[in-house]
């Protein structure tokens, strides 16, 4: 791994490129309130972040990324439109792969703008593409918004759709829910026994934990209502599977998704957003006939993205994480904006990896 001084110099070079693209340099605190991140991601974030506590400020986390604090800053004080750049260290626990760094430098670029979101997507991607071109990396793209639109269009209950949307970023859990809601998987025996009981609360032992009797009763009622629903149709499940199987060059992926949209009209607006984005990428010199698109890309490590996603990888170094990644996160601005929202897209580059792969310093 390059020396810290070299990484800082490379970070400064990258940040200067983003400043030349109109970005305002900003800084965020290394310690972030854990409450915000827990609210966003639930307790799962604890497995990936370093947590500490403070007698006055409560539970804190070492900064796992920059996007959340930058969005908070913009939603509180930012004018529109806005562009930001930043650099600094982030901290991620790596319990499953000790070879990967748990502390490293990121340099980022974010655009907050209401007009022409597809043009903003293309601008961010093309800028990263040009910066990283000398490294000969493989570019991967996707669009989580297409799968989200497909789920929202299913003919089933809002509760089921909300559960599926909540677990889009957990593919195994998402698949388990699809199988259960479609009748492919049987109801767990313990749940079936519970619902078969006339009064599941009768004879219950002492209540332990945060949930009270009313919450538990409401949950049982919801489970009974769900059990009474008919399954999601096999044809709709097949269409979801067809979307998840799309893995083509971008031009072919678009045609494939347009074919699926004939039978699943709910994805048509998202598919046409993809078409406009590809037009914008082409106008910026990106060859979309050579640009990979994978409909399921970004579902394991990009939890706050809800539209376009991308990453750049060293094909001959599969042991390395992405050199750069990013995407669109409109819903995050709505969540952190307390009712206000603004379309936003951005990405980060790891200057240490750029140097390791023979990039500039």
TrEMBL record:
Entries under Gene3D superfamilies matching the protein: Bira Bifunctional Protein, Domain 2 (3.30.930.10)
Location of the Aminoacyl-transfer RNA synthetases class-II family profile domain: 14-351
Protein residues bound to L-histidine: 65-67, 92, 106, 110, 304-305
PROSITE patterns reported in the protein's UniProt record: AA_TRNA_LIGASE_II (PS50862)
Gene Ontology terms for molecular function: glycosyltransferase activity; histidine-tRNA ligase activity
Entries under InterPro entries matching the protein: aa-tRNA-synth_II, aa-tRNA-synth_II/BPL/LPL, HisRS-like_core, HisRS/HisZ
Entry keywords, A to Z: Glycosyltransferase, Transferase
Domain of life where this protein originates: Bacteria
One Gene Ontology CC term in the entry: cytoplasm
Transmembrane segments: none
UniProt cross-references to Pfam families, sorted A to Z: tRNA-synt_His
GO terms for biological process, alphabetical: histidyl-tRNA aminoacylation
Cited PANTHER family: HISTIDINE--TRNA LIGASE, MITOCHONDRIAL-RELATED, HISTIDYL-TRNA SYNTHETASE
SUBUNIT field: Homodimer.
NCBIfam families, per database record: PRK12295.1-5
UniProt-recorded name of the protein: Histidine--tRNA ligase
């Amino acid at each position: 791994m390059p020396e810290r001084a070299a990484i800082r110099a490379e970070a400064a070079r990258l940040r200067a490129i983003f400043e030349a693209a109109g970005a305002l340099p900003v800084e965020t605190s290394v310690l972030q309130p854990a409450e915000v991140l827990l609210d966003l991601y639930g307790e799962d974030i604890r497995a990936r972040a370093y947590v500490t506590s403070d007698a006055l400020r409560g539970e804190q986390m070492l900064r796992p990324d920059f996007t959340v604090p930058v969005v908070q800053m913009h939603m509180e004080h930012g004018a529109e439109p806005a562009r930001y750049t930043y650099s600094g260290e982030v901290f991620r626990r790596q319990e499953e792969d000790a070879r990967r760094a748990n502390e490293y430098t990121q340099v980022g670029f974010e655009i907050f703008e209401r007009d022409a979101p597809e043009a903003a997507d293309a601008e961010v991607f093309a800028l990263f593409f040009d910066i990283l071109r000398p490294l000969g990396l493989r570019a991967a793209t996707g669009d989580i918004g297409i799968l989200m639109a497909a789920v929202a269009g299913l003919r089933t209950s809002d509760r089921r759709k909300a559960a599926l949307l909540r677990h889009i970023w957990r593919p195994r859990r998402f698949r388990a829910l699809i199988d259960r809601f479609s009748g492919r998987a049987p109801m767990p025996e313990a749940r079936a026994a519970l619902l078969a009981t006339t009064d599941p609360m009768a004879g219950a032992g002492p209540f332990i934990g945060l949930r009270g009797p009313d919450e538990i009763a409401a949950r049982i009622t919801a489970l009974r209502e769900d059990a009474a629903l008919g399954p999601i149709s096999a044809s709709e499940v097949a269409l979801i599977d067809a979307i998840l199987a799309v893995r083509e060059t971008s031009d072919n992926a678009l045609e494939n998704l347009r074919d699926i949209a004939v039978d699943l009209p709910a994805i048509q607006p998202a598919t046409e957003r993809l078409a406009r984005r590809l037009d914008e990428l082409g106008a910026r010199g990106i060859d979309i006939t050579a640009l990979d698109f994978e409909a399921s890309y970004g579902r394991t490590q990009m939890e706050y993205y809800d539209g376009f996603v991308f990453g750049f990888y060293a094909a001959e170094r599969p042991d390395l994480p992405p050199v750069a990644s990013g995407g669109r996160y409109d819903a995050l601005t709505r969540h952190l904006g307390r009712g206000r929202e603004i379309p936003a897209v951005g990405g980060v580059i790891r200057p240490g990896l750029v140097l390791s792969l023979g990039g500039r310093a």
